[in-house]
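Appendix B. Chain record.
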Amino acid sequence: MKRVIFLLLITFLLNGLLRAQRPNIIWLTCEDISPTLSMYGDSTAYTPNLDRLAKESIVYTNAFTTVGVCAPSRSSIITGMYPTSIGTQHMRAGKDIHGWGARNYTLPSNAVDINGDSIPLYSVVTPPNVRCFTEYLREEGYYCTNNTKTDYQFASPITAWDANSEQAHWKNRKEQQPFFAVFNFGVTHESRIWLNKNLPLTVAPESVPLPAYYPENPVVRNDVARNYSNIELLDKQIGQKLKELEDAGLLENTIVFFFSDHGGPLPRGKREHYDSGLKVPFMVRLPNHKNGKFTDELVSFVDLAPTVLSLAGVEIPEYMQGQAFLGASKLPKARTYIFGSGDRFDGFPDRIRIVRDKQFLYVRNYHKELPAYKDVSYRKNIDMMNELLKLKEEGKLTNDQKYWFRSKKTSEELYDCLADPENLHNLINTKKYGKKIAAMSNTMDKWLERVGDMGAIPEKEHLLTMWPNGIQPITEKPELSYEENVIKLSCETKGASIAYIISDVEINPDFDSKWQLYHSPIEIKKGRKIYLQAHRIGYKESEVLMLEL
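Structure tokens predicted for this chain:
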């Protein structure tokens, strides 16, 4: 037993040494913006703070999410897995809350009907080996905080974060403890197009550029200007966070990421599988990196988890489907392709898969009989969406402007993104691209074979596989063994993680309590209290156990 205690002490000292050497990492993540920033050639919005960050960063010009909407996209960010591979591809599966209720709205024909109710909000049960990547950081001594959005298609387990709230901040870590901190900025979210309607426009409507798929129209110009004005508000918030790092003397020991969760908030942006929905601004500032540079290296959001682990010097789990593009585990060969998908969006089913290289976008439509446009009610809060529908009915849209509203799709699509960055001219029937189409189709087949595609399973069937009889499974209670002041914990639920709190007094812990992640035996003296809870992604958490030793 003395040997065990000695080894625990040595491990603690070594971990302390490693922590002092590991870099801090911060994510400044925003919502719903495309690369409509000056470093990408669009200077419509005045963004001095992002401009400064770009001058000191690696600016990625070919960065893409996996799905053009928040929850599926964020599921790939937190797991390093494709949504279609772990069942998180539908928007939306569930609310970001603990506990799940039912919601009534119009749903696709494969909607689950349980006790006369429409498909419930459900927490996706991912494969048992899949974990939130932050758990691997926590195991290595990182202080991990999220402020404050998760939206992963499953309830964020308490094992994922040291703090996950509006108060979550790297400032609350132990002295010299390295941190991974996420700050999410919602000021550019789709909803802010109408929620910020009464705020002054800081970008003049007459000055904004319009893509070819938007008509020349005052309502359209006003909402586009609102979007750019919101980006200017975002820039100020980013500046405040960077100043906070600088004032704390941490900027030069912190790797700073800036990116959006998917493309822009306006019609034909968010929720789309074209560049307007999948392509994002993406920058990484390395410590003491004063001279920025641009790279056209392809980056996918499945690469974020392994890249952070690589930068932190943490081993990347073999199951992750992304690849590190920075750090010690960076692969020598960059990506040749990125992959994406589109499935159910609210009440509108579909199944779309895409593959893109640096020039071409290939699209496969599994339901060509379904319209390209999905009449999602949420975005009808945007004035210009209603204006577009009105102009469509009046026959006042050009061919480019009508393209999104086509009633049927071809089974395949191909776009030259260099010649046609707005993806309006489908080249699928152009003979000279035959070999390219065949090559990209073959690439997609190999990708789907490698990662799997749960979109091929009807959602009802998939849900009942995860939740037998429509009932959410429950994580088994943790089990504890205690011998000579050393505790070992386990759980019979495959894939479960265990959280614990050690206290000298009786407490009533909740999800916001300071839970620690169990990963190795714990030394604890008799007379103290330990609180335990087990979590498996998609399962209901176990009840909290309290044991007095």
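Further analysis of this model is presented in Appendix C.
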